Amino acid sequence: MKKKCTAILLAAGQGRRMRSSVQKQYLLLGDKPVIYYPLKTFQDSFMDDIILVAGDGEEAYCRKEIVDRYHFTKVKKIVTGGRERYDSVYHALQAVKEKDMPIANEDGYVFIHDGARPFLTEDILMRTLHAVMTDHACVAGMPVKDTIKVVDDQGYALQTPDRRSLWQVQTPQVFDAPLIIEAYERLMQEKERLAAEGIGITDDAMVVETLIGHPVRLVEGSYENIKITTPEDLAVAETFLSRG
User: Fold this and answer.
1) Tens digits of residue pLDDT in 100-126
2) What is d(CA 72, CA 148) in angstroms, rounded to the nearest whole number?
3) In the 8-state DSSP scheme, what is residue 57?
4) pTM assigned to the model
5) How many domains does the chain have?
6) What is the CATH number of the domain that holds 238?
């Protein structure tokens, strides 16, 4: 029997590097907001339901101007994001684990994706689905193209890692629901200790790696699966979109 698949789409970021009064996920790409595109991919995919994470005070806007306007019927709940990315994911996972919620997912898969990555595809979703079925934790990514330097705090190169072993991590990041829920529960208990030790949590895979010790498989994403962070990224995204 097919396990339930729940998507968490994160749209609570501030996007300060965009130098815009409009948050990056609501900027127009073509004639639609950036967040429309990953939502459309999830809506048209094998996903069973979607949890949309909005910024504090933006929940009604997301419901009216995004979910209702574009008829995203798989969005079953809009939750309020937190101060950090991991807080936002944790809030969404609370809806996943609540047994009396229509989106409860006790033994399925959870797909966590950045709302500012518009070029999610069905192929990426299928590759990550197949990986999570066997490995229980996987993330989309691509091998880096450039040489990477490790530098000290003065900007001097310390070492040059072998590029063949380096990947740039993307989303979706996909996990067995019980695994990612347990990892985030532990994170909430230990985040002060981690901060004191200088350990910054930057993605969901790191939560699983650090708090559970579970290996995470890297799965091919796409070089076009970019995250829109700067005005230059938006210009590149327009080019990708115009190519169809």
Assistant:
1) 677 888 899 999 999 999 999 999 999
2) 40
3) T
4) 0.94
5) 1
6) 3.90.550.10
